[in-house]
User: What shape does this take?
Amino acid sequence: MTTLSFLDEAPAGNLLTEYDRQHVKLYCRLLDAEADGASWKEAVEVLFGIDPKDKPERARKVHDSHLARAHWMTVHGYKILRLGRPN
Assistant: This one.
């Protein structure tokens, strides 16, 4: 489980946020879990500490929004991180 706090919904849009910078490792772990074929329920329980049986809607929202942001980071966000461009 992550020791960082997290939002129920990851940032959206084309700007790299401070939240993104703080959660790069979490995004990588989500991408790894997806690549390994882990279920979203397992990933959200391990990475976010949310029991999907107790809070299924919240768990799905947290997982899906952060995974979508992780995918955005692989296409766009990493360029901003690498080049050090400000938002």
Observations:
- The radius of gyration is 13 Å.
- Residues 56-83 form the longest helix (28 residues).
